[in-house]
Structure formats: C-alpha cells, structure tokens
Amino acid sequence: DSIYLLSDGFADQFGGAKGRRFTTKRMQQLIGNFQDLPMKEQKEKYDEVITRWMGKEEQIDDITLVGFTL
Question: What is the pLDDT of residues 4-55, one digit of tens each?
C-alpha cells in the first residue's frame, strides 16, 4: 500500500495544447498509473509529465507530491 500527500499545484498548473489546468482527475489517473512503480521511478515519471505539460508556461504555484510505501 502507498500513501500520497499533495498540494493543488500539480492539478492547477496550466499547460497542454490548449493552456488549460492539469486537473485533479488527471492527477488521480496518474497516481493510479504509477502507483505500482518504485518510488524513485514514480518521481521521474511525475517530473516528466509536469515538465511536458507545462511546456513554455510558467509554474504558478508550489508543486508538492509526497508518496511513501507502507
């Protein structure tokens, strides 16, 4: 089992092709997709996703995501 604590910064970040918010729904899908990977690999995946999503948009808030396995 894993537990995740996160701020709203990831979900609220603007980007993508239309410059829209990432959304909580997408964030939940990501967590579901990545939850079985080792934590180090998850970090790399989240970094890749948010960097790609932001493109040339500026970061608008803190982006905090903490995950740990029980």
Answer: 999 999 999 999 999 999 999 999 999 999 999 999 999 999 999 999 999 9
Phi first, then psi: give them for residue 45, nearest 5 degrees: -65, -45
Beta strands per DSSP E along the chain = 2-6, 14-15, 20-21, 65-69
Domain ranges of the chain: 2-69
For 3, 17, 44, 56, 60, the CA distances from 6, given in Å and listed in that order, are 10, 24, 16, 23, 15
Please, are residues 62 and 10 in contact by the beta-carbon 8 Å criterion?
no
Look at residue 8 in the predicted model and tell me its pLDDT.
Answer: 97
Long-range pairs of 38-47 with CB within 8 A, sequence gap ≥ 24: 39/67, 39/68, 39/69, 42/67, 46/10
